[in-house]
Amino acid sequence: MTQLETAMAILMKTFDTYAGAEGSKESLSKAEVKTLLEKELPGLLKAAKNQEEVDKLLKALDMNGDSEVDFSEFVVLVAALTCACHDRCGKK
Questions:
Q1: Where would I find the EF-hand domain in this sequence (predicted)?
Q2: I need a labelling partner for 89 at 20 to 30 A (CA). Which of 21, 32, 78, 83 fits?
Q3: For residues 86 and 16, what is the distance between their CA atoms, to the nearest angstrom?
C-alpha cells in the first residue's frame, strides 16, 4: 500500500478499535472519544487547561447532535488537528 493508503487504513482501524466498546460500532460515545484521545493523542489532553475545554471539543465534534461521534466526525477531528500541526494551513 502507498503511504496515504496506509494512513487511511490506520484511521479506520483506530476508529474501529474504540467504537463499540459501549454501544454502537458505528460511533464513539463521549467516554470512547475520551479514551481514544487519552491513548492516541495524549499531548492534546495534556495541553488542555481544564476539563471544560475537552468537553467543548467533544461537543464540537458531534456535528449532528446525536451525542455520538461517527466516523465522518472523527475524520474531521483528525484533519483539523493535522492542519493545526502543519505550518501550511492558514491561521484562522
A1: 49-84
A2: 32
A3: 26
Is residue 90 scored above 60 in pLDDT?
no
If one counts every other C-beta atom within 10 angstroms of the C-beta of residue 77, the result is: 19
> Which residues neighbour 73 within 8 Å (Cβ) at sequence distance 6 or greater?
61, 62, 63, 64
Residue 17: is it exposed, middle or buried by C-beta count within 10 angstroms (0-12/13-18/19+)? middle
Place of cell 471544560: 52
**Mean pLDDT throughout 29-53?**
80
What class does CATH assign to 3-85? mainly alpha
Q: Which residues pair with 28 in a beta bridge?
A: 69
Assigned C-alpha cell, 46: 495534556
